[in-house]
Prior knowledge:
By secondary structure, the chain is mostly helical. The protein has one domain (4-75): YggX-like, CATH 1.10.3880. The chain has helices at 24-33, 36-53, 60-75, and strands at 4-7, 12-15. It starts with a strand and ends in a 15-residue tail after the last helix. Could be a mediator in iron transactions between iron acquisition and iron-requiring processes, such as synthesis and/or repair of Fe-S clusters in biosynthetic enzymes. Necessary to maintain high levels of aconitase under oxidative stress.
Amino acid sequence: MSRTVFCQYLKQEAEGLDFQLYPGELGQKIFENISKQAWGEWQKKQTMLINEKRLNMMDPNDRAFLEQQMTAFLFEGKDVEIEGYTPPSN
């Protein structure tokens, strides 16, 4: 049976993650407050960011930058700005 969370990103009840996908306190916060759908959205943005900025996940500064972007995206309603990327218009 799936669990439901009040997703801080979607601002509504939604299916929660099956398990904690990110370490530490922030990971726990994501697990309790972010839906599968919102996490999926972030994963797409994260991939684009890593490619766009050529981030190295072994570099602590790059990881810190990505975590900052993730927090802003998931909890502060800020979209990720990716240079040279124009979102498709609906």
